[in-house]
Each structure stands twice: as structure tokens, then as C-alpha cells.
Amino acid sequence: MHKKNHFCNQSLKDLNTFAIDVKAKKIIFAKTIKDLINISKMCNISNTPYIILGEGSNTLFLENYTGVVIINRIKGIKITEKKNFWLIHIFSGEKWHDLVKFTLNLGIFGLENLALIPGCIGSAAIQNIGAYGLEFKDFCQYVDILCFKKHTITRINKNSCKFSYRNSIFKNQYSNQYGIISVGIKIVKTWRPIIFSSFQKYITLTNITAHNIFNLICKIRKKKLPDPKKIGNAGSFFKNPIITKKKAEKLASLYPIPFYPQKDGLIKISGGWLIENYKFKNIHIGDAAIYEKQQLVLINKKNATSQEIVKLAKIIHTCVFKKFNISLEPEIDFIGPIGKIKSSDIFELKKNKV
């Protein structure tokens, strides 16, 4: 670990949903593309590291950040109506949930299953966010990225974004020296509700509306997920594992584990179920703990350090692997003193699909 630098003096506690009390050398809010270019130029000239945050909702700072944290507040929404669909261009500093509410109130239906997912539009593309039978890639048409070396903007077509489960090209090839400026999505006018299995006892044929689905999802999420304004967390800490059918069948023969077939023939299983059924007994490291109502979520009860959260996550990872032979892969981004750190450098990750 690097020693804490004395020049890291601006607190990030209110700018990351885990509410980890770490500092940055400097925090700058960017409201325009020009701001973003000028800040990156300044950092490049002075050889200062920098990262871009939206809501800081999928992030764990491991220690003080020695560079500049750029808070993306580039906003704007442009809607173009066509005969059979709407085209919506959204700048990356807009909050995702605000977009869902905005379109719903305009009578543009389709995003309601993704209600109340924290974070901004930029992270929606990076993470390929998803919930209740939908993913960001189902609507995405393109993503516009800014190259910080050339200061040029390039449009990446959806077919080149390499979207997969909580992953995209923006987490990999375009993770360094690039920033997402805006995205384009397409919503067809013929609305077809996606009724997830857990909705069926609440939604009937007579009351299927986009507003009802939106309200139900908000209610479900508020009930089972902690509010970051009250309890520090970054949503699901681990991904739901995706394994082969053969491995799933073997697991199902031993345990009553729920699993969900994917389009590619693989099987998604519940990571929360694995943690819950390991039956950890009130485990916590300092103020780092497992959230009782949704065990994929790790929480900062009050003053947890990032080291305590990582230690807890490692214990969970090791125990689940020993019992179920399943390797839980972290979903969140780890940020060290000069930038992102691969989760494989922190956890002993093993491939699950074999």
C-alpha cells in the first residue's frame, strides 16, 4: 500500500455511495465537454492522474487518491420522434433514474424495469446496467467517447460496444484515456411490458401499465436494497455467477438453488443465495457488514474503511468457493492511489464456466 500523501486534502466521503472517508488531491466538477477537455489537458501537462466519477455508485476507493477526481455533471436530453420509435440522446452526467422518470412522464414507455438503479448515464453504459429482464444494451444505439489524448469525440456503434453481463468495451479497451460524453437510445412506440416472475402476484392483466411496473419496482428495490444516503453501499458488490448447464445441474442436485437460463445456453445463478446459504453468523469486520435483506450487498454501517470492506469480501469469496466451488466476481470498480485496480489483483478469481 502507498503511504497517504499529505497533499490529498479534499474529502470524497460525500461523492462515493460507500461513504468511505478518503481524500483526493483535488476535486473538480465538469459541466461541459470543454471543461472536461481543459481539466484533462491540465492533468496531462502536469502528469497528474485523474479519474471521472458520476454518482460514485459503483466504486470503492482503496486509499487516498493522489490525483484529480473529475465529477461529471455534463447534462442534457434531446428527444427525436420518429413514426415507430423515439431516439433519445442523453449526456453522460444525467442521473439514470431521472431519465427513467422523465421518459415515463412524457408517455415514453420501456425503461420502467430499470427504475431506481443508482448512477449516471455514463456508468449505465460502462456497466451495461440491468434488472428485471432488461439491460442497457437492449436500448442502446451508440456511445460517444472523448479521447483525452487527441481531444476528439468518436461514436461507438452498439454492435462494437461488446456489451455482456455487467461489462462492456468501456470497462476494458476504453477504460483509460477515454471518457463517455453521451449515449443514444432507441425506444419503440409499441410498448410490451416485461413481467418478471416476482411481479406476477402484484401485476394482473387489468392493471399492467408502465407506471404500475415503475412504482412496483421502486417499492421492491427500496424494500430490499439499502438507501446509500442512509447506509453506505455500492449496490451489489458481487456479480451473479454465470456457469455452464452441466455445472448448474450438478449444483442443483446438491442444493435447491434458483437458476436462470441465458440466451447463450449458460446458466445464471443467484450470488445472494450462495452467500445466504453459506450461513455466515453475524459476520462483520469493523463497520463493514453483509446487508441482511440482500446479501450480495456489502454495507458501511458507519465508519468502515475500505480495507475492512475488502477483508470481508475476501472472506465471503473464499468461503463460498470452498462450499459451492463457485468463484464470486466483484462487480464494483476498485480505485487505488493512481487509478483503477483490477479485481483479479485483489481476489483470487477462478473461471466459473468450465
From TrEMBL:
Pathway(s) it belongs to: Cell wall biogenesis; peptidoglycan biosynthesis
* Family to which the UniProt record says this protein belongs: Belongs to the MurB family.
Swiss-Prot/TrEMBL catalytic activity: UDP-N-acetyl-alpha-D-muramate + NADP(+) = UDP-N-acetyl-3-O-(1-carboxyvinyl)-alpha-D-glucosamine + NADPH + H(+)
Principal location = cytoplasm
Q: Which GO terms describe its biological process?
A: cell division; cell wall organization; peptidoglycan biosynthetic process; regulation of cell shape
What is its EC class?
oxidoreductase
Please provide the record's keywords in A-Z order: Cell cycle, Cell division, Cell shape, Cell wall biogenesis/degradation, Cytoplasm, FAD, Flavoprotein, NADP, Oxidoreductase, Peptidoglycan synthesis
Summary of the function given for this chain in its UniProt record: Cell wall formation.
Q: EC annotation?
A: 1.3.1.98
Against PANTHER family, the record matches this protein to:
UDP-N-ACETYLENOLPYRUVOYLGLUCOSAMINE REDUCTASE (PTHR21071:SF4)
Any one GO MF annotation of this record: FAD binding
Q: What is the name listed in the Swiss-Prot or TrEMBL entry for this protein?
A: UDP-N-acetylenolpyruvoylglucosamine reductase
Q: Which domain of life is it from?
A: Bacteria
- Tell me which residues this entry annotates as catalytic: 166, 236, 331
Q: Does the keyword NADP apply?
A: yes
What cofactor requirement does the entry state? FAD
Query: Can you give the residue ranges of the FAD-binding PCMH-type domain?
Result: 20-190
Q: What is the lineage of its organism?
A: Bacteria, Pseudomonadati, Pseudomonadota, Gammaproteobacteria, Enterobacterales
HAMAP family recorded: MurB
| Subcellular location as annotated | Cytoplasm
Tell me which InterPro entries the record gives: FAD-bd_PCMH (IPR016166), FAD-bd_PCMH-like_sf (IPR036318), FAD-bd_PCMH_sub1 (IPR016167), FAD-bd_PCMH_sub2 (IPR016169), MurB (IPR003170), MurB_C (IPR011601), MurB_C_sf (IPR036635), Oxid_FAD_bind_N (IPR006094)
Q: Please name one Pfam family that this protein belongs to.
A: MurB_C
Keyword field contains Transmembrane: no
Q: What's a single GO CC term here?
A: cytosol
- Report which residue ranges the record marks as coiled coil: none
